[in-house]
Structures are given as C-alpha cells and as structure tokens.
Amino acid sequence: MTATLVPPDAAEVHLAESRKERRKRERLEERDDVIPVQLYGLKRGTVSVMTTCCVLFAIFTLVPIAWIIVNSTKTQPNIFGTFGFWFARPFEFFHNFRMLFEDVDDDGTYIHWFGNTALYAVAGGVGATALAAFAGYGFARFQFRGSKVFFYIIIGALLVPIGAITLPLYLVYAKAHLINSIWGMILPSLVSPVGVYLMRTYIGLSVPRELIDAARIDGAGESRIFFKIALPLMVPGLMTVLLLSVVGVWNNYFLPLIIFSNNNLFPLTVGMGLWSQHATTSGDQNLYPLIVMGGLVTIAPLIILFLILQRYWRGGMLLGSIAN
Amino acid sequence: MAAITLSGLTKVFATGVRAVDGLDLEIDDGEFVVLVGPSGCGKTTALRMVAGLELITSGTVSFGGRVVNDVSPRHRDVAMVFQNYALYPHLSVYQNIGFALEQRRLARAEIDKRVSEAARILDLSLLLDRKPKQLSGGQRQRIAIARALIKNAPIILLDEPTAALDSESEQNVQEAFAELRKGRTTLVIAHRLSTIMHADNILVMEGGLVVESGRHEELLRKGGRYASFYRLQLREQEAPPSESDSVVRFPSSVIRP
User: Fold this and answer.
1) Residue B123: inside a domain
2) Does the distance separating the beta carbons of B78 and A8 come in below 8 Å?
C-alpha cells in the first residue's frame, strides 16, 4: 500500500474546488513534499556556506539581466557615461523599443529577424521534441538489432565540436541547395542527440513496462500505446526537451552565420551581430541602445516560455498506477 | 475452445538464465489452475509467455489446439490481471475499464453499458470518474479485475492478484476474482492459501519445471513440497499479524533443502 493514497472523501472535495483553490492546494502539497533543511543532518555552518554559494551564483546569473533591463532605458551616451546598474534621465525605454522595429542602415528590421527566429525555433524545437520522443521511446522500450550501437552513435554526436564539421556542413548544404534556405536552418535543428538521450532516460523511468504490457493485452496497437498511454506520461520530459531545443535554436549563431547571406533570412542572433559590427565600425550614435533593447526583447520570449512550461514539471504522474 | 497446452516451453534469457525449462502442461477448457513456487522458479515468465508478452525460446503455446507462438498479445484474446495493477494513471476509472473495448472500436453506448455492468459487479459504480491515485489498493485491484472481466476473453491470466493487498481488501477482491473466473480457463500465480485451495489443479514449479501437481488435498497427502509450504503458511497465520500480513512467499528453503 502506498503512503500517497488520497481517501475518497478528499477526492470528492478535489472535484468540487475551483482552479484557483486547486493551484493553492498543489502549491501547499509541493511545500509539504519538500524535506525541511533541518532534517538534512547538516551543520548550521555548512548550510550557511552552501546558501551563500547559491546566492552568489544566483547574483552571477541575474546581474547581466539586471544590467540589460537598466540600460534598455538609456540613451547611448548614458549607457557609456553613467553607472551601469542604475537608471539615468532621460528615460528612453519606449523610444528605444519603438526604434527597434525600424530599418537600420538598410540591414533589415528587428521584427523581421524576430519572426525568422520564432519560425526556426518553433519548427526546429517542436520537430526536435517530436523526433526525440519517438527515438527515445524506441530506444527505451524496444530491443532491436543494433539498438545499443545506434544509441551510442547518437550520444557520440554530442562529442563532435561544431567547428570540426563547419566546412563539410557548408559543402553538403551547397550541394543540397540549402544555402540561403530556411530548411537549411530547420532541418539540422530537428536532430537533438541530447533530447534523444533525455527522453530515453525519462521514458525508462516514467513509462513502466507493465503499462505497455497491459495496453497490449487490452488490444492496443503500438502507435495507440505510444500516443494514448506513453505520451501523456512523458509530458515533463517532453517539456524539458522542448525548452532545451527551442532555446538551442533561438540562440544558434554559428549555423545561420555560415548558411545565410541574405539579411531577410537572418535570425536575431546574426541580425543583431550585424548591428553590433556596424556600431563598432561606423560609430552610429543610435545603435547601442537598440542592441541593448534588442537583447532584452530577445530573451523575453524564452523567459515567458519557461514560465509557461514550468507548470508541467511535476512529479507523481504514476501515482496509483503501479503498486509498490 | 479455450484449453491451454504448453509443450516443451523454454525460455532462456540473454544473460543465459534458463527461466523456464521444457515446461509441459495441459489446462482443460474452463479449468482453474494455480502456479506456486519460490521466487525465480519461472512462474511469471511462463505466464507472460502464455500471454504473448515474452518471446519463446523453444516449445509451443496452444489455445484450443491452435499454436499461438507467433500471435501478438492483442490478438490472443486473453485477459490478464497484473500483480501491481498496471492501471493507466492519467485515465479515469471508466476509461481504464473501457480501454479494451475502445480498441475494438465498439459503439459508445455499448461501451457505456458494459463498463457500467462491470462496475456494478465489482462495486465500482461510484468511482468511475476518479483517477487511480484517488483510490485504495483494493479498489485499484478491482479495477484491474474489471478491466479483465470486460474483455470477456475465454482465457484469464492472473499474476498474484492479491499480493499487494491487506486481508480486508483481499476479501473483496476474492469475490471479484470468483466472478472473473466463471466459465473461463484461468491460470493464476498465487501465494495465498485462500486462492490456491480452490484450484482444480495446483502446479508447484521449481527451476523452470513443474515438480508437483494435483488438487490441494492430494498434494497435502503426498507430503511433498506443497505440504511443507502449506504447513509454513499455517504457522505464519497463527503467528501475530505482521506487516507482510497473510501473504507468505513460497520459501526457498522448503523447495531447495
């Protein structure tokens, strides 16, 4: 008998509660699940040192974000002439934001690059997640000739540095007419060795063999078992792979740099790199505020995506399914 | 016809472990047969081979005279209750019970009718909207039995259906279990005397083979391994209740002196 059973009365109460109440209850349940630090068996000094390390690391991570927020409100002279971590007059946030969407020196517009990036990230991220789910499920739950070798080859792909394949990649792309094509960006983004590895591990732990056996006995075919039984249990893993894939494509600089020469196909990384070059070489007075504001707007969708997806990272998916 | 015949059934795992070693077995149509034996004796592997969930190294499994070695589990027309429930955690009780009928693409009205009937028999009618995590162990196992019952398959396979339950839940599940067995060929792995004693035939397995078989009384008279197991169970039941309750594992020391 598991210790996590919910008595029927409690279940009735759950059905009647509103969404807001349910979220509050889930938050409290999560808090109850956390082991209090007093029970870790650590000395007070050790806890203090570890807490300090965590705080320092958090500051290290958050300082650039704080800097970019503060400086997105400044004019170019103020960016260089005032303290970087505090605001200065005039407050130019909305002006900078508006300027971001205008064509600069005929290089292209931020909004165009933003659209390109979103297209590459959504197509590549969703595609990579879907393929990682299929491949991870196959490797985790089916034994076939050479499955281990194939898996190790995929993992081995993680070890190859991108610099080593630049030239062959360019030559292959040229032969396949993928230079200056959106497919040149999307197709390689669909392959995520890390995603396959994560999904294989996650499925091994979260989709018990017994459930698949039960579904087979119930008469379900393999595709039905995957979509109806396995996939809903894979959601937290899928969301992790989706986030990693989207962030990977969103931040990809090197691949679009070598395959795109047409400014209209640039993603944000390359487009803003172009602005940065112009700012350095031409001394344009207005480019640095735009680059800073562009950086802020670029990271915003990723933060929003994380906040949306984090609700799917929850445990207890298998509660009640398998007896201990 | 739902007679089960196993001929020279053998399973050797990739590690070289010979889990089932040339098992021969005849189970008549409608017969209730129990497999007992210590852990690792090959009971579960044999049951899984009958269900089609395990590849057969050699030998044959036949249903009603037809060899089904190459028939996939979904086409074998067997129902199975797993030791650890194996309920679909994200589906409601209704969806769990009706899942097999959905696969057959039956009409919604027909599924409703049969799920309601199975739920009524197993006293689950008030729980149909709940998820498995909101139920007790006994209720979960009754869902697993309802899932088998609703398939109306001629062959029922049960892998220690009451092992994870306390005595009180076991009582309820035993009634459900009796309902499930009616008119069907039943092969059960069991450790509880309450299940074993009513069997038409008890097969004691050891080292992948059946080493004793017969009805409860016959095996007691023989005074062999089963009799030792029975005496041990009685001693356990007379002892004060413990965490393991009345589940007594077939002791290795009895089988392998």
Assistant:
1) yes
2) no
Distance spanning both ends of chain B, measured CA to CA: 41
Q: Is residue B73 part of a domain?
A: no
State how far residue B216 is from chain A, nearest Cα, in angstroms: 29
Inter-chain contact B84–A233, Cβ cutoff 8 Å?
A: no
B74, B79, B83 ranked by CB distance to A216: nearest: B74
B88 touches chain A (CB under 8 A): yes
Query: Could you give the C-alpha distances from B107 to B110, B116, B153, in angstroms and in order?
Result: 5, 14, 19
DSSP one-letter code for B85: B
Each residue's pLDDT, cut to its tens digit, for chain A (324 residues) gives 333 334 444 444 455 567 788 888 877 877 777 777 777 788 888 889 999 999 999 999 999 999 999 999 999 889 988 998 999 889 989 999 998 888 766 666 889 999 999 999 999 999 999 999 999 999 999 988 999 999 999 989 888 877 788 788 889 989 999 999 999 999 989 989 999 999 999 999 999 999 999 999 999 999 999 999 999 999 999 999 999 999 999 999 999 999 999 888 999 999 999 888 888 887 666 788 999 999 999 999 999 999 998 888 766 677 767 775
In this structure, the number of other CB atoms found within 10 A of the CB of residue A146 comes to 8
**Overall domain count for chain B:** 1
Contact (CB, 8 A) for A68 and A292:
yes
The whole-chain average pLDDT of chain B stands at 86
Residue B11 forms beta bridges with which residues?
B20
| Residues in CB range of A195: below 8 A, 6 or more apart | A128, A129, A131, A132, A136, A241, A244, A245
Tell me which residue range forms the domain holding B126: 78-152
Q: Could you tell me if B114 and B164 are in contact, meaning their C-beta atoms sit under 8 angstroms apart?
A: no
For residue B131, being part of any structural domain is answered with yes
Q: Does residue B227 sit within a domain?
A: no
User: Could you tell me which of B237, B235, B201 has the C-alpha nearest to residue B218?
Assistant: B201
- Taking the Cβ of residue B183 and every Cβ of chain A, the question of whether any pair is shorter than 8 Å is answered with no
**A interface toward B at CB cutoff 8 Å?**
1-2, 4-6, 8, 10-11, 14-15, 208, 210-211, 213-221, 224, 229, 232-233, 316-324
